[in-house]
Amino acid sequence: MSAVTSSLTRQSRKRVPLPNAAETSQLGWKRVKQHYRISHIVHVSGGNICIGSVVDLERMVINPEGVIIRRPMRSDIEFDRFVREMDADPQSLVRLVTAEDEFDAQRTVTVYTFAGGRILEKQCEARGWPGVTHDGMLMYDHLFSTDKAVTVVRAKADARSAARAIQTDIDNTQLELRKLKSGLSNAEAYLAQLEADYPQEDWLHG
């Protein structure tokens, strides 16, 4: 397995919270990617267009108004090129970001994912990691499938796992609380005994 494939595999197995429906929108992420000939990953996260790689998915961020709100921290030939192009004609960037993308109906595939207790139906042109749905969601292999039944099984397993983890946290917290209550009870008992045995000694703390 190559270093790149290994990196993609590790990335695809990460537990990644899916955005709410309100966080994804029909921003022109595809127009931006095509116009500036970007080979890096372009997707939508938190209502912004993000450009990056498996190492840093949000290396560059463009808001819905077409303004660059995060710039690459490291120099890179391709990033340097398209950032220069964006800066040279900011109005073109605005038009691309705010225009709704167009997709090839013949290439469009329906995929399914989940968020909480909901099964979500999405469309995409290139399924699988690191493909992006029409509304800009990055498709992690363990979160997206063309088979709705598979997605339902994954959603149930994810919810079941989350419930177990939360129950474990509750059990540990309750155990810690019992220990604290026992310590408090002992401290109060010590204080009661001391006050009974030495009722006249409080002046030392005056």
Descriptive notes:
With 206 residues, this protein is an alpha+beta fold. Helix content is 43%, strand content 15%. The chain contains 5 helices and 6 strands; from the N terminus they run H-H-E-E-E-E-H-H-E-E-H. 19% of the residues are buried.
Question: Keywords for this structure?
Answer:
single chain, about 210 residues, alpha+beta, four-stranded antiparallel beta sheet, 5 helices, disordered N terminus
Order of helices and strands: HHEEEEHHEEH
Tell me the fraction of residues in β-strands, as a range. 5-15%
User: What number is the mean pLDDT?
Assistant: 87
Write down the Rg: 27 Å
What strand order characterises the main sheet?
Answer: 1-2-3-4
Structural class: alpha+beta
The rough form would be described as elongated
Give the beta-strand count. 6
Share of helix, binned? 40-55%
Ordered list of secondary-structure elements with their pairings:
Layout: H1 3-12, H2 29-35, E1 41-45, E2 48-52, E3 60-62, E4 68-70, H3 77-88, H4 90-98, E5 109-115, E6 118-124, H5 148-197
Antiparallel strand pairs: 1-2, 2-3, 3-4, 5-6
